[in-house]
């Protein structure tokens, strides 16, 4: 009987890993799919958050889950701020995709977890242990390499600013997600996406209005980004992470940006210079090292630190 339970437990764990890795690989294609949508970054994020929110709401209702957010107004407020930061971050990120390329913009975006680690002593009163300090230092050096290479190749650009601002918004999103820890799982993701949608809709209305061009040929890519890359990806992610060890969730989460680099090279022909590749290793390796060897964050925090709806995650 015990052996049978162990076998079932091992099967469920393997199934959860398969779901988690599938979600990360799906998230890694976000920039690739977006490159086939001839729209501005605001319009793309508007449609992505609209379709993704609708998909997650449908899943939430089908599962007959109950809303907890209204019983915790303080946490709900934090969650709305987190979602607004998510929407703003995605607008910057997708603009970075257009101007810098998927690979470099993704790497800048994944400096976000490093910002959170650096802020942890101030915001969360957590001790900055040597493992985290070393990881932060390596990631900062990696960002310096990326920036120096970009400046040599084309000078300071709006794309670099967008990538950096996406990382800052990522950090804001994670900080307020942790403060809203009383609302978890699929509902947390649903409210974040809904808040992101409202934020992007407001920006779009103020700047351009809702009269944007939507060609029939864009429909497949838009649906793929909204329903699959956001809706299905998030469902796979949240159905897996609660069954996996926290450290595995943290470290394996970096498969997403690594896959984004591979996919951008394979499908878009993007190439990183040796200096940029070394910078990528320092950023991703430093962030992963700091999380693996530093003090452990709560699982609810780690889920959002690596979400790429997205990243996070991201991206």
Automatic annotation (TrEMBL):
Boundaries of every EamA domain copy: 18-146, 158-288
Q: Which organism is it from?
A: Papillibacter cinnamivorans DSM 12816
- TM region positions: 20-39, 45-63, 75-94, 106-124, 133-151, 157-177, 189-206, 212-238, 250-269, 275-294
Which Pfam families does this UniProt record tie to the protein?
EamA
Location within or outside the cell: Membrane
InterPro entries for this protein: AA-Vitamin_Transporters, EamA_dom, EmrE-like
Alphabetized, the UniProt keywords read: Membrane, Transmembrane, Transmembrane helix
Could you confirm whether the keyword Transmembrane appears in this record?
A: yes
Q: What is this protein called?
A: EamA domain-containing membrane protein RarD
Family statement drawn from the similarity comment of this UniProt entry? Belongs to the EamA transporter family.
The entry's cellular-component GO terms read: membrane
For membrane topology, the record states:
Multi-pass membrane protein
Q: What is the lineage of its organism?
A: Bacteria, Bacillati, Bacillota, Clostridia, Eubacteriales
């Amino acid at each position: 009987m015990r052996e049978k339970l162990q076998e079932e437990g091992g099967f469920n764990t393997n199934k959860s890993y398969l779901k988690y890795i599938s979600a990360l690989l799906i998230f890694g294609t976000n920039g690739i799919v977006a490159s086939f949508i001839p729209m501005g970054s605001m319009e793309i994020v508007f449609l992505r958050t609209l379709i993704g929110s609708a998909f997650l709401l449908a899943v939430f209702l089908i599962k007959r889950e109950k809303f907890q957010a209204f019983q915790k107004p303080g946490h709900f407020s934090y969650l709305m701020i987190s979602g607004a930061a998510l929407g703003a971050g995605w607008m910057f990120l997708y603009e970075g995709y257009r101007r810098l390329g998927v690979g470099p913009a993704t790497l800048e975006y994944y400096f976000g977890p490093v910002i959170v680690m650096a802020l942890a002593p101030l915001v969360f009163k957590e001790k900055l242990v040597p493992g985290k300090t070393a990881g932060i230092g390596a990631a900062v050096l990696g960002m310096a390499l990326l920036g120096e290479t970009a400046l040599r190749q084309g000078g300071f650009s709006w794309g670099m600013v967008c990538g950096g601002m996406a990382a800052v918004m990522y950090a804001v999103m994670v900080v307020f997600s942790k403060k809203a820890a009383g609302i978890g799982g699929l509902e947390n993701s649903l409210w974040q996406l809904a808040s992101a949608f409202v934020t992007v809709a407001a920006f779009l209305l103020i700047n351009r209005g809702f009269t944007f061009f939507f060609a029939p040929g864009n429909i497949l890519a838009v649906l793929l980004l909204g329903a699959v890359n956001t809706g299905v990806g998030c469902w796979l992610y949240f159905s897996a992470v609660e069954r996996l060890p926290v450290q595995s969730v943290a470290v394996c989460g970096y498969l997403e940006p690594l896959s984004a680099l591979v996919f951008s090279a394979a499908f878009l022909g993007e190439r990183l210079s040796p200096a940029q590749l070394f910078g990528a290793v320092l950023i991703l390796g430093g962030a992963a090292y700091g999380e693996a060897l530093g003090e452990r964050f709560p699982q609810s925090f780690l889920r959002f630190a690596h979400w790429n709806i997205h990243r996070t995650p991201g991206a």
